[in-house]
Design brief:
Rossmann fold; alpha/beta; 329 residues; nine-stranded mixed sheet; 20% strand; 39% helix
């Protein structure tokens, strides 16, 4: 971690969520001054109670990213923003599509405009593999959020604010994750619900998600999508690995509205402009002609790196049973 960055003031939106909470703790431990913005008062209260160190460097900010004035207030004196706040549950978003748009798209636009107005240095959006070739409202709204963030590099004018993205797969043991669902059914001694034996998903640990965010915001030039190469598994294999039972009691319930059988982290089209940087993949922006000249020049530096060889689909990169057990453990 770069020592000169430890003096930064960092704002994390959606701070009471699983990823937001982990980022708050990560940056407090690293000596940063952290502000956490969330619309859940109870969530912020519980977050602050869980902080056992550097509490004087943390400010809990109650507010909603839909309220641009509150967002601007939260960004006063901030250097970096990691934007995690979102409507993320696929099934609920299908029944509340305008709420998904208001938060994931218009809320992201508020983040952009406030960051430019307050001269924030860097803004990082946390996105999802569901934004890639989306079939759901949630995925489509996150795709629009991604496009809005990339385009923000065109509209920042004289501001030096730059904008980039990270894409996650399914984060193991996060709020509402499949492992939480499995656990509830196991405790109630009921069959574990499996949507389909053919359904595959990407999985990563929370620490991997946090490290991806920190790598991205520390190294971003503007307009990139950062991805961590991660393993995948079908849902039944995950259930077997989690329970330790190769004959796990389960029931097939079928796909819910908006769900698809596999996810993608990098498409075949994106592969043409994706480079390998250490253990990460960096997707360069397709449209950058209106970026600032210094940003466009810096982006050229990626072209000296190895290029990605093929797209990244969850049904092509499945972990073995032993690898899945190791990941869960």
């Amino acid at each position: 971690m770069k020592n000169e960055d430890n003096n930064k003031v960092i704002l994390i939106t959606g701070a009471a969520g699983s990823v937001g909470k982990s980022l708050v703790k990560f940056y407090l431990r690293a000596g940063y001054k952290v502000r956490g913005l969330d619309n859940s008062e109870d969530g912020l209260f519980n977050l602050e109670k869980s902080l056992d160190e550097n509490i004087t460097n943390f400010r809990p900010l109650l507010g909603d990213i839909r309220d641009i004035q509150r967002v601007e207030d939260a960004m006063r004196g901030v250097n970096w923003v990691i934007h995690c706040a979102a409507c993320k549950h696929v099934y609920i978003n299908e029944y509340n599509p305008l709420e998904a748009v208001n938060t994931n798209v218009l809320g992201t636009d508020n983040i952009i405009r406030a960051a430019i107005n307050k001269k924030v240095e860097r803004v990082l959006l946390t996105s999802s593999d569901k934004a890639v070739n989306p079939t759901s409202t949630m995925g489509a709204s996150k795709l629009l959020a991604e496009r809005t963030i990339i385009a923000a590099n065109n509209i920042s004018g004289e501001s030096d604010t730059i904008f980039s993205i990270v894409r996650f797969g399914n984060i193991l043991n996060s709020n509402g994750s499949v492992l939480h669902i499995f656990r509830n059914f196991i405790e109630e001694k009921k069959p574990i619900p499996i949507t389909s034996t053919k359904m595959t998903r990407f999985f990563l640990r929370m620490i991997d998600a946090v490290e991806l965010c920190h790598f991205a915001i520390s190294n971003m030039i503007g307009g990139e999508i950062f991805v961590r190469s991660m393993g995948s598994a079908d849902i039944l294999t995950l259930a077997k690995a989690y329970t330790g039972d190769p004959n796990v009691n389960h029931s097939i319930i079928g796909l819910k509205p908006g769900e698809k059988l596999y996810e993608e982290l990098v498409t075949e089209q994106e592969c043409e402009r994706t480079y390998v940087l250490k253990e990460y993949l960096v997707v360069l922006p397709e449209i950058k002609e209106f970026f600032k000249d210094k940003v466009k020049e810096k982006l050229l530096s990626y072209e000296s790196l190895p290029k990605m060889e093929s797209d990244l689909r969850s049904d092509k990169t499945c972990l073995t049973d032993d690898e899945m057990i190791k990941l869960i453990n």
